[in-house]
Amino acid sequence: MKVFVFDLLAYDANLDHLKGAETELPYPLAGRYFDRDIAMRTYEEHLDAWELLDKLGYDGVGFNEHHCSPYGLMNSPNLMAAAAAQRTKNLKLLIYGNLLPLHEPLRLAEELAMIDCLSKGRLISGFARGIPREYQVHNVALSESRARFEEAYDIITRAWTEEVFSYEGKFWQMKDVAIWPRPYQQPYPPLWYPTSNVESISYMAGQGFHMAISARHWPSFPQVCEALALYRREYALHRDDPGRLNAHAAEPFLGLSIHIHVAETDHKARDQARPAYAAFHENFTRRYFELGMNKYPRVEDFDRLVDEEKVLCGSPETVRGVLGRILEQSGANYIMGAFMFGNLSSEHEQTSLELFAREVMPAFAEPRAAVV
Questions:
Q1: Which of 76, 78, 74, 85 is nearest to 50 (CA)?
Q2: Distance between CA 202 and CA 296 in Å, rounded?
Q3: Radius of gyration over alpha carbons of the chain, in Å?
Q4: What tens digit of pLDDT does each residue of 243-270 get?
Q5: 195 part of a folded domain
Q6: Domain for residue 32, yes or no?
Q7: What's residue 251's pLDDT?
Q8: 20 to 30 A from 233, CA-CA: which of 48, 211, 224, 363?
Q9: What's the CA gap between 204 and 134, in Å, rounded?
Q10: What is the β-pairing status of strands 312-314 and 254-262?
Q11: Burial letters 147-157, b for 16+ CB under 10 A, else e
Q12: Is residue 105 in some structural domain?
């Protein structure tokens, strides 16, 4: 089992006083509320955390892209991955992922190739489509999302693999292009895609993307297992298709994306994680309710999520036992652990990461030897 840590890189300050009588922060949140010193500290603490992950033997760190919200200060995951490449030696850098419909794809192809060379081949390139609010920010029609995504990743993979190429699409056109640098990994870095619905699963498996499924996005854990099984079947069905992405990958990486918090006791872990999860939920996932996308659990159900094993929270012994059960049932071969969420303190995050690395991971994997 591989273990990646997914980092949302939230602004490290409590902004609840700005909510007034509402449950969510105002949007847009005006610039006068931004504190540059808090932002500077936030970036430094997370860079330190990624360096710690490398030393503790974690397999990789996952970056994300979100815009115009203190929920996440990772507007450019490529910029953060480049910084992390200079602070780590072995950690895989999973960009999960660049929002292809919103950006110029040739620039993304170049930046990702740069990161792959900077990191000596540690890049994993995730592509995503983003949330409705981000389409509003970038003035891109949400109805064009799928078509833009498909056109963009076609351009990116062709830029990586063809000596010289031209492209004539609906959204982008280019002639006689040969990018420099080229990816360090050949033919290109592994491609991953986050998904939470059956339609995307079938399509992306057919294209050859690796992926992680978020446990809390599905009504029950058996349905999570069914979704992973569907992905394996679809991936195998299209394994020999000509022109398929990730053609060099015989088997998919299939993972569970799940919130994790470990403390010395079950009671202590829940007490620390419960308010942090509430902050995460209220400051981000409520935006889906506003848009009619009612797929997220209510925040007051945190303890139920833990009891239903959709959130891993407890002592090392408890988390080890639950993790063993869900890995056996699902057949997942990696975990995307959201250890850093909401307003969880950096002290509690570090303790959780250390306890998981030293008392949970060894039961499921042969991690690299820790050097701390």
A1: 85
A2: 22
A3: 20
A4: 665 555 667 888 899 999 999 999 999 9
A5: yes
A6: yes
A7: 75
A8: 363
A9: 22
A10: parallel
A11: ebbebbbbbbb
A12: yes
HEC sequence for the chain = CEEEEEECCCCCCCCHHHCCCCCCCCCCCCHHHCCHHHHHHHHHHHHHHHHHHHHHCCCEEEECCCCCCCCCCCCCHHHHHHHHHHHCCCCEEEEEEEEHHHCCHHHHHHHHHHHHHHCCCCEEEEEECCCHHHHHHHCCCHHHHHHHHHHHHHHHHHHHHCCCEEEECCCCEEEEECCCCCCCCCCCCCEEEEECCHHHHHHHHHHCCEEEEEHHHCCCHHHHHHHHHHHHHHHHHCCCCCCCCCCCCCCCCEEEEEEEEECCCHHHHHHHHHHHHHHHHHHHHHHHHHCCCCCCCCHHHHHHHHHCCCCEEECHHHHHHHHHHHHHHHCCCEEEEEEECCCCCHHHHHHHHHHHHHHCHHHCCCCCCCCC
pLDDT of 298: 52
Cα–Cα distance between 339 and 356 in angstroms, integer?
Answer: 10
Domain that holds residue 83: 2-363
**Which residues are paired to 210 by β-bridges?**
192
CA distances from 275 to 3, 71, 135, 140, 342 (A): 25, 15, 30, 35, 8
What's the length of the chain? 372
Please give the Cα distance from 278 to 283 (Å, whole number). Answer: 8
CATH code of residue 9: 3.20.20.30
Low-confidence residues of the chain: pLDDT under 70: 196, 242-250, 283-300, 366-372
Give the pLDDT of residue 128.
92
What is the β-pairing status of strands 165-168 and 173-177? antiparallel
How far is residue 98's CA from residue 334's CA, in Å, rounded to a whole number?
21
Amino acid making up residue 220: S
The number of distinct structural domains making up the chain is 1
Residues 92, 124: Cα–Cα separation, whole Å: 7
Predicted local confidence at residue 367, as pLDDT: 46
Please indicate, yes or no, if residue 370 is contained in any of the structural domains. Answer: no
pLDDT for residue 372: 38
